[in-house]
Design goal:
about 5% strand, mainly alpha, two-stranded antiparallel sheet
Length: about 550
């Protein structure tokens, strides 16, 4: 049962429970009498309640500062009755009238015990009394039942209507429910709501009928999910199909599940993927400040504002990749520190939320927040890497001369640069270029001497340059490997609608099991015009820009 709404009522209940045993029955009876005259929309002073229960007027200093609302007061009085009963040895023999427990009252009205529980929430007063078998159980006095029947006649009649349902009516409900699930994949609650509106039956009656049928006939169950749980392989396949653009109703129909169960599977797999994924960061005491968000995330946009510094006149034959590097602004010490602080703090927040994930009670909102933080961190890391790509080229030029070409060295150095971003501690006051240069040169010291003895079996042309440039815009910042790259793409795609996912995956060939498609081919497949497909793709890319951060929108550009 819920806690007391008013602290003074909780104190009053404790005082009455600690009082004389011979007075407790009177307190309980007085509380029920007061319940019958309380107007839920009204308000009542504390001293009035005390006087009605005990006949004693408390001093003015003990009165509540504000009157108590009627609806909340009724809930507190019902809780007080149970607490006072539990503190003593009130027996059903103390009342000269019939007394029912929950099962006895359910049998009298031919309803379920769950219906009795709903009646209690609607105002049926319950006590906790000792029955002849010596056990204390929830009890209902005859006078309490009669008062409730008099004031809730229509509700009781609706609840009792289930007992009048004939066999053909039940069969008709099951038939219509099965047809509805097959056509739409609705949940049991949605099916019960729709059928209740069409048949005039109570929602709970429909729901109980379906569940009772599925329990008694598991092989003919309307909701097959009750027949057995999904295996881990099935859950993973559902998750992968969802990320690749499959619609939830189609998955529900394919796996004979409700749409709600499919969403639960997707969220469960998202949570498991996040729990397995390592989130490393450089901790800083600033992260635990009460106003850390305001200090770190709201302190400017951390965008480099200075023009890129480079040679005034670039060689005319400079490859496009190298020429593009000089359009990226360099970072000042303040900008660099701000970006590293922001990058590590975003991952710190994501890791803290990730540690609180529970597979027993998954919050879709929390999953989305963790993924949003990781995507923003990836965007910040992209910005740091792009601002330091010229550093890699300057170091790589000094190591040219062996089997590896300049662009092979640059590609290798870019990997070292990405890893250096992960390890750099901005709080020590050093520039990142110093740390990154050491990391890149140490990698070349290991790889270049070994490569000098190998024959150059591959030629590097403009196509490879373009591939490198493209890779720099889509690499996974956490670990540079295909599995992590696939996971990052999956996290991004999970933020989109099924149609948007399908268009991006097929247009850019992100699914190796399906061929890459043009806008026209996608339009024919989805039943829409080529221009409409292009508009949806543009909208989807816009969503991803906003997810990363407005300042990092150019990363998807």
């Amino acid at each position: 049962m819920r806690e007391y709404f008013h602290k003074q009522m909780e104190v009053l209940a404790a005082e009455l429970a600690a009082g004389l045993a011979r007075l407790k029955k009177g307190y309980v009876d007085a509380a029920e009498a007061l319940l019958r005259i309380i107007d839920p929309s009204g308000s009542y002073p504390y001293e009035f309640v005390v006087y009605r229960l005990t006949g004693y007027r408390p001093p003015r200093g003990e009165a509540a500062a504000e009157p108590m609302r009627g609806k909340q007061l009724c809930s507190d009085l019902r809780r007080l009755i149970v607490d006072v009963c539990n503190s003593g040895e009130l027996r059903i023999e103390d009342y000269g009238e019939p007394v029912y427990d929950s099962e006895g009252l359910a049998k009298r009205f031919q309803v379920s015990t769950k219906t009795i529980q709903r009646w209690r929430r609607s105002g049926l007063t319950a006590r906790r009394l000792v029955f002849p078998d010596g056990r204390r159980r929830v009890a209902f006095l005859e006078r309490s039942v009669r008062w409730f029947v008099r004031n809730r006649r229509n509700q009781i009649l609706r609840s009792m209507r289930f007992s009048q349902m004939s066999g053909p009516e039940r069969q008709d409900i099951i038939r219509r429910a099965r047809r509805m699930v097959k056509a739409t994949g609705c949940s049991v609650n949605e099916v019960a709501r729709r059928l209740a509106a069409r048949t005039g039956r109570a929602v709970e009656t429909i729901r109980y009928t379906i569940r009772r049928h599925d329990s008694d006939h598991p092989r003919e169950a309307v909701f097959i999910s009750a027949a057995g749980p999904l295996g881990e392989e099935e859950k993973f396949e559902i998750y992968r199909s969802f990320l690749r653009g499959s619609r939830v109703p189609a998955l529900a129909k394919q796996y004979h599940r409700t749409r709600g169960s499919i969403y639960r599977v997707v969220n469960e797999m998202r949570a498991k993927q996040l729990q397995k994924r390592p989130i490393s960061y450089i901790y800083n005491p600033q992260f635990d400040l009460p106003n850390a968000d305001e200090i770190i995330l709201s302190s400017g946009n951390n965008e480099p504002r200075r023009a890129a510094r480079g040679p005034r006149r670039l060689p005319p034959d400079l490859p496009p990749y190298l020429r593009a590097l000089y359009t990226v602004p360099l970072l000042s010490p303040e900008e660099e520190k701000g970006l590293f602080r922001r990058y590590n703090y975003l991952k710190y927040k994501a890791d803290r939320l990730r540690r609180e994930l529970s597979l027993e009670k998954i919050s879709a909102g929390r999953l989305k927040e963790i993924e949003r933080l990781l995507l923003q961190a990836n965007g910040v890391k992209n910005q740091i890497v792009r601002a330091n790509l010229r550093l890699v080229v300057s170091i790589a030029k000094k190591h040219v001369g062996g089997a590896q070409s300049l662009f092979e060295l640059v590609s290798d150095g870019n990997v070292s640069l990405m890893r250096a971003v992960e390890k750099f501690d901005y709080s020590r006051g050093n520039r990142f270029s110093t740390y990154a240069s050491w990391a890149i040169m140490r990698n070349f010291a290991r790889s270049v001497p070994r490569e000098r003895y190998l024959l150059d079996r591959f030629s590097t042309g403009h196509d490879e340059i373009l591939d490198i440039a493209a890779a720099l815009r889509t690499y996974d910042p956490d670990e540079v490997n295909l599995n992590e790259l696939r996971e990052s793409i999956d996290v991004v795609l999970a933020q989109l609608s099924p149609t948007e996912r399908r268009i991006l995956i097929d247009h850019y060939g992100l699914d190796e099991t399906r061929p890459q498609r043009t806008f026209q081919q996608l339009g024919q497949y989805l039943g829409m015009s080529k221009e409409r497909v292009r508009q949806i793709e543009s909208k989807a890319l816009g969503k991803l820009r906003k997810i990363l951060h407005p300042q990092q929108a150019d990363l998807l550009g």
